[in-house]
Design goal:
The chain is an all-alpha fold. It contains 5 helices and no strands. The two termini are about 15 Å apart. Bound molecules: MU-OXO-diiron.
Length: about 170
């Protein structure tokens, strides 16, 4: 059994992960409307991964006898200033999610909840990867600036991203 405080934070995290999926789905829509299908594909995969993160927390909660309480998901932004802006917002968002995961880890340590701490370590690694990916794309877009050829080349690269379902919890 996990503590009531931990259950609350996990329920909050489920909401944040579903919001992340919604946020990236909005980015997919923004790129799809411009026929930038590679960028749209990148955010389609991102959206599916975030949904999987939410479900991983959902499954864990059930596994340890906690109670899932789903929360409202706010509307994400519908438009973005530029392609670079999308990735800058992605990085800023992922940093918030990382802080939230760290908060969960801190609570697990405080409560000596080793099982939840072990479960959370997958997310610690995942967050590091997500931040690194956003940073890489930001650096590429800073080099490309508004060069259409560069945008099309990156679009072709991002079209190759493939969705791989994550292992279920725990
Ligand atoms: Fe599941 Fe990108 O945070």
């Amino acid at each position: 059994m996990i503590s009531t405080t931990m259950q609350k934070l996990i329920n909050d995290q489920i909401q944040k992960e579903f919001y992340s999926a919604y946020f990236y789905l909005s980015m997919k829509a923004w790129f799809a409307a411009q026929n930038l299908d590679g960028f749209a594909n990148f955010f389609d995969v991102q959206m599916k991964e975030e949904r999987d993160h939410a479900l991983k927390f959902f499954d864990y909660m059930n596994h340890v006898g906690g109670t899932v309480t789903l929360q409202a998901i706010q509307a994400p932004p519908a438009t973005f200033a530029s392609t670079l802006d999308v990735f800058e917002q992605t990085l800023a968002h992922e940093r918030i999610v990382t802080a939230s995961i760290y908060n969960l880890v801190n609570l697990a340590i405080e409560e000596k909840d080793h099982k939840t701490n072990a479960f959370l370590q997958w997310f610690v690694t995942e967050q590091a990867e997500e931040e690194a990916t956003a940073e890489t794309n930001i650096r590429k877009l800073q080099l490309i600036k508004d060069n259409p050829q560069g945008i099309f080349m990156l679009d072709a690269e991002l079209a190759k991203r493939v969705y791989t379902p994550i292992a279920p919890a725990p």
